[in-house]
Amino acid sequence: MKSKYGMSDNKSKKSRRSPRSTRSNKDGGGSTHDVAPHSDRMSESLVRPNPPPSATEHPTDNTMNDLKVNLTKVILSDPAILTPIVEAVADTLVTKLLSPERINAIVDKLVKSKPLVTSLVKSLESDVKQEVYQSCKMDSEDMDNAITTLEEKCYSLRNTANDLQSRLDDFEQYSRRNCLLIHGLDDSEDYREAPESIVISRLNPVIPRLNIATKNIDRAHRIGKPKQSHHERGRPRPMLVKFLSYQDRAKVFQQKRLLKGTGMAVTESLTPTRLGLLKAAQ
């Protein structure tokens, strides 16, 4: 095919080759392909900036996240938008998920699923055991605390009782401060003579300048279990004598050593607690 200049297309193409390409062919005798223009295009593509994204391209993840956040803020800040959405979701849940047919189907599936039932039973068993253990532990701790409190109260009450018993013993012993026990007085004549007269008739002859009279004695009586008959032999019961004054009682007690060998003896009138301590000490 010829061009308008009367030359064929091949000749015109040859004539339009670059001088650099012709020179390289002449010098090296190599290929006739154009090398330099290709490298220039590569360098231009590397330094050329990327064009801005067009309107048809998809947004990035950050843009989507920002859009979601802004949309959520708008919905939550406006009750007029939020209320219909919540009502619609609630209606959907009640209608679809909480319908009797749906519930029965879920129950049937749960009951028929043996692994699930077994897992639930084990979980409940573990929870129940834990609850029972915690309850028993708390009950045990409460009982221990209650027992400790009761023991402390018992200890305090025991100390109080001991203190009261000691005070009561002191009061009882104080009430006996004017009393003496006279041992060895014959009791065969008790039915004939008053106890005060027996004491006076036995002590005045033995203790000089005692001069005890009936007016010095408040009362006197035997203590202990009486004999079955007047003719029964045995140790005579002691005579408890209560003097009107502590001075008269002291006269008799201070000279009790003079009664040695007469078969008579004088001792203090002690409470049962103090008498037990005295016997234990002897």
Overview of the structural elements:
The chain is an alpha+beta fold. It folds into three domains: 47 residues, no CATH class; 54 residues; 105 residues, RRM (RNA recognition motif) domain (Alpha-Beta Plaits, 2-Layer Sandwich), CATH 3.30.70.330. The chain has ten helices and four strands, in the order H-H-H-H-H-H-H-E-H-E-E-H-E-H. A four-stranded antiparallel β-sheet has the order 2-3-1-4. The N terminus is likely disordered.
Oligomer: single chain
Give the count of structural domains: 3
Q: Using DSSP, what is the number of strands? A: 4
Please compute the radius of gyration using only Cα atoms. 65 Å
Low-confidence stretches: 1-51
Q: Strand arrangement, largest sheet?
A: 2-3-1-4
Shape: rod-shaped
CATH class of the largest domain: Alpha Beta
Strand residues, percent: 5-15%
Structural class: alpha+beta
At the third CATH level, what is the topology name of the largest domain?
Alpha-Beta Plaits
- Let me know the CATH homologous superfamily of the largest domain: RRM (RNA recognition motif) domain
Q: Please count the helical segments.
A: 10
Biggest beta sheet attributes: 4 strands, antiparallel
